[in-house]
Design brief:
The complex is a heterodimer of chains A (579) and B (163).
Chain A lengths: L1 H19 L3 E3 L5 E3 L4 E8 L7 E5 L2 E2 H5 L4 E4 L6 E9 L5 E9 L2 E10 L9 E7 L4 H12 L1 E2 L2 E2 L10 E6 L10 H10 L27 H8 L3 E9 L3 H4 L11 H11 L3 E5 L20 H7 L3 E3 L2 H9 L5 E4 L8 H7 L13 H12 L6 E7 L1 H7 L3 H22 L5 E7 L2 E2 L1 E8 L7 H4 E2 L24 E7 L5 E3 L12 E3 L6 E3 L1 H4 L5 E3 L12 E2 L3 E6 L9 E3 L1 H10 L5
Parallel strand pairs in A: 2-9, 10-18, 10-19, 13-30, 14-15, 14-18, 15-17, 16-17
Antiparallel strand pairs in A: 1-3, 3-7, 4-5, 4-8, 6-7, 8-9, 11-12, 13-29, 19-29, 20-28, 21-22, 21-23, 24-27, 25-26
Chain B lengths: L5 H9 L3 H4 L20 E3 L5 E5 L2 E4 L1 H6 L3 E8 L6 E8 L7 H5 L8 E10 L6 E14 L6 E13 L2
Parallel strand pairs in B: 1-4, 6-8
Antiparallel strand pairs in B: 2-3, 4-5, 4-7, 5-6, 7-8
Classes of the chains: A alpha/beta (579), B mainly beta (163).
Cofactor (chain A): Zn(2+); Mg(2+)
Protein name (chain A): Alkaline phosphatase
GO molecular function (chain A): alkaline phosphatase activity; metal ion binding
């Protein structure tokens, strides 16, 4: 056995080594490319062969001839042992399958792309894409129970996000991994191309400079380049964060916040709302996080934007008929609904007049809908994800209710003309599930004693206000949301009334995290041994499929299981964005 | 108000040396009797540094503006240091060790203060509360070697552990 398995291993590793040396062609195999959309075409030839020995063809013809441009060939690009062949900013107009071959001596690599058309032309005047960041099935169910109540197994009402005619399961994996992050998942929605963790609007090549990787055009750029439509980007995260950035950005590294601000400036969405103001301030301004002296707030103002920093200012700008609005409501993330409405923790005392996502959505639609050519709007409820990372279920669920209220605003708008496509989808999942209820009236102190499962769970009762939010989360019988991934932590089943949960803190050993001792002091708290690598300080994303619901013209394509790239395709098709 | 560009913050935060920073240092090494003889320091607190705090930036408080160029003392937490021994560190209002999101996202709080020490000194472990004494500098400055942009610095400084 031993020699055979050793032989097998040797054969396998030889095969892997050979595979590792094959040319890499970007866009990757099976790419779906919107006809007429722009992209960077790159081939990396390992071993840095001389330029004269390279041949790159598209359907058998020289690539340079097909694209009508002269390639740039760089031997030892960035000091890597490869020759890079570049044709930047090219496009393909003719729909169909395209075969690309890259040859260097006896080494040949072939990939196929699908160039797709939008044959029906434009069927939707407007497209509104709602992203519930990290919004998983359990979030949806738990928030519905919380907000609508349940009697004898039936809900007391319907969520706006559920009451939509079309639905699909969306697979979120990236080019590098089964588990994705908010950057490459959003990038798939906004470009139709899959990419890798931390990347936005680029394929992940071997370039050293994060801004030099092969780019693919985003829907924000396409809509601005090819139509007279307005574009809006609305979130309650920092506006530079991955999901909003995905509408306009090209970078291998989502944390390039200062570059991302410049990309917002380059594309100029008509409505931009979120947090993250320090990256808009010149470095000479105290509180700035920029490395240069560009004052982007001033720049946007000089380009005709109304800058607003509070809900009052936002509503006034809209009432005054403004159509270009830059709203930055916090230096960091805008506070979540639970803090804004009930608990007033987080940064609410510093920023007492922040709009929530529902109010932002209402303002954005009012401003954007003044454009006679229609609009594309992306709205994100960002902190469902952030609060699921921090294992703070009540905060996450409040932000699901907020997302639903924002979708309701969009549906009310769409009902006037039935020419708006609305899509509601998560960008990736979290490992969350409903396992019962925590009941303070059960005997004992610890979470395991307080947990009712099966028949003992019964139904939690929250007293809900007119907007569907509980008036208190500190009720005696609460939904028990379990997290399937965790660092070492302490837990007592009670809501985090004193501020967002911090599950773990830096340990004494480098790059290790231990339970937050403050949580261990909470009454009834127990230690939970983590199941994540030791350098994780919070829960992680899950590779599960996510649910998409949609309505309006063009949304009938959503059914069954689809790759995340199909969300872009559906939007581009509804807007007739192909050449 | 120091703020590295995000790139340098990433490097800074991935090169934390907690273990090395935990070297026991004799308390006496931090005490330099006779240094502040000329002028009593203005005692600052993090709460007093800024008059306003908004999305268009921060405004220094009159106390800070009045203390510019003068000896001051300020108590806070030493951010996870780059090296065991260094001539500068970042002082934060809250211990960075309980701000995991700051660390994972390479995102400093906006109200941090850069401390430049009078001499290379062994640093204490991250999250240790320290009182820094030195001369207050106010205004934008980019450190030529690290790329740090700071708005407020305590220079020619020393520090001691405090409660």
């Amino acid at each position: 056995m031993l020699p055979r398995s050793a032989l097998l291993a040797a054969t396998l590793s030889a095969g892997l080594a050979a595979a590792a040396q094959a040319q890499t062609i970007y866009p990757l195999n099976r790419a779906e490319i919107l006809a007429g959309s722009k992209f960077d075409f790159k081939v990396e030839f390992p071993g840095a062969p001389a330029a004269a020995h390279l041949e790159v063809t598209i359907d058998g013809k020289d690539a340079a001839e097909v694209f009508g441009a002269k390639p740039t060939v760089i031997e030892k690009e960035d000091g890597n042992d490869l020759t890079a062949y570049w044709l930047r900013d090219v496009s393909l107009a003719k729909p169909g399958t395209v075969k690309i071959e890259a040859t260097a001596g006896d080494k040949k690599k072939a990939v196929a792309w699908e160039v797709f058309d939008t044959p029906k032309g434009r069927v939707a005047k407007n497209v509104i894409l709602f992203i519930g960041d990290g919004f998983s099935v359990a979030h949806r169910t738990a928030a519905r129970i919380m907000s609508k109540g349940m009697v004898e197994g039936r809900y007391g009402g319907e969520f706006a996000i559920d009451d939509m005619p079309h639905m699909a399961l969306i697979s979120t994996a990236g080019t590098d991994s089964i588990v994705t992050d908010s950057a490459n998942s959003m990038s798939a929605y906004t470009t139709g191309h899959k990419s890798c963790v931390n990347a936005l609007g680029v394929y992940c090549a071997k370039n050293k400079n994060t801004l030099e990787h092969p780019k693919v055009e985003t829907i924000g750029e396409l809509v601005k380049r090819r139509t007279g439509m307005a574009v809006g980007v609305v979130t309650n995260s920092e506006i530079e964060d991955a999901t909003p950035a995905g509408v306009v950005s090209h970078t291998r590294k989502r944390s390039d916040y200062n570059d991302i601000v410049k990309m917002f400036w380059d594309v100029k969405p008509d409505v931009i709302m979120g947090g993250g103001s320090p990256f808009f301030l010149a470095k000479s301004t105290p509180g700035s996080k920029r490395p240069d002296d560009v004052d982007y707030i001033k720049q946007f103002e000089s380009a005709g934007y109304s800058f607003v920093s509070t809900k009052t200012e936002m509503n006034k700008a809209v009432a005054d008929g403004k159509t270009k609005i830059l709203g930055l409501y916090n230096t960091g993330n805008v506070d979540g609904a639970l803090d804004l409405r009930l608990l007033k923790k987080g940064t609410v005392s510093k920023f007492p007049d922040q709009p929530d996502v529902t109010e932002e959505t209402k303002a954005a639609i009012e401003a954007l809908s003044k454009n006679k050519d229609g609009f594309f709007l992306m709205v994100e409820s960002a902190r469902i994800d952030k609060y699921s990372h921090s294992m703070d279920p009540e905060r996450a669920l409040f932000d699901v209710i907020m997302l639903d209220n924002a979708v309701k605003v969009a549906k009310d708008f769409a009902a006037k003309a039935d020419d708006t496509m609305i899509i509601v989808v998560a960008d990736h999942a979290h490992a969350v599930s409903i396992i019962g209820t925590y009941d303070d009236d059960r005997p004992g102190q610890t979470p395991r004693e307080k947990l009712g499962t099966y028949a003992d769970a019964k139904v939690p009762v929250y007293d809900v206000d007119a907007e569907g939010y509980p008036k208190s989360v500190d009720v005696s019988k609460r939904i028990a949301v379990a997290f399937g991934s965790s660092p070492d932590t302490c837990f007592n089943s009670k809501p985090y009334l004193e501020g967002e949960n911090v599950p773990a803190v830096a340990g004494a050993t480098k790059d290790t995290y231990v339970e937050n001792p403050k949580n261990c002091e909470r009454p009834g708290a127990v230690h939970i041994t983590g199941n994540l690598p030791f350098d994780a300080n919070q829960a992680v994303h899950a590779g599960d499929d996510v649910v998409l619901t949609a309505m309006g013209p063009g949304s009938e394509v959503f059914h069954g299981r689809l790759d995340n790239t199909r969300v872009f395709r559906a939007m581009a098709t509804a807007l007739g964005l192909a050449k | 108000m120091p703020h590295p560009t995000r790139g340098s913050a990433d490097r800074l935060l991935t090169r934390r040396h907690f273990a090395a920073a935990c070297l026991a240092v004799p308390l006496a090494a931090f005490l330099r009797p006779g240094r502040a003889a000329a002028e009593d320091p203005v005692v600052l607190t993090f709460e007093q540094l800024y008059a306003s705090f908004g999305v268009r930036g921060l405004t220094f408080s009159p106390l800070v503006l009045g203390a510019a160029g003068r000896p001051v003392s300020l108590t806070g937490y030493m951010a996870p240091p780059l090296q065991a021994e260094a001539t500068f560190f970042v002082l934060t209002r809250e211990p960075m060790a309980i701000c995991p999101f700051c660390q994972s996202d390479a995102d400093w709080p906006v109200d941090i203060v850069v401390v430049t020490l009078a001499a290379a000194t062994p640093l204490v472990s991250a999250g240790t509360r320290v009182t820094v004494s030195g001369r207050l500098e106010v205004g934008s400055k980019t450190d030529p070697t690290t790329g740090f942009v700071s708005q407020m610095r305590i220079v020619d400084a020393d520090f001691r552990r405090t409660r």
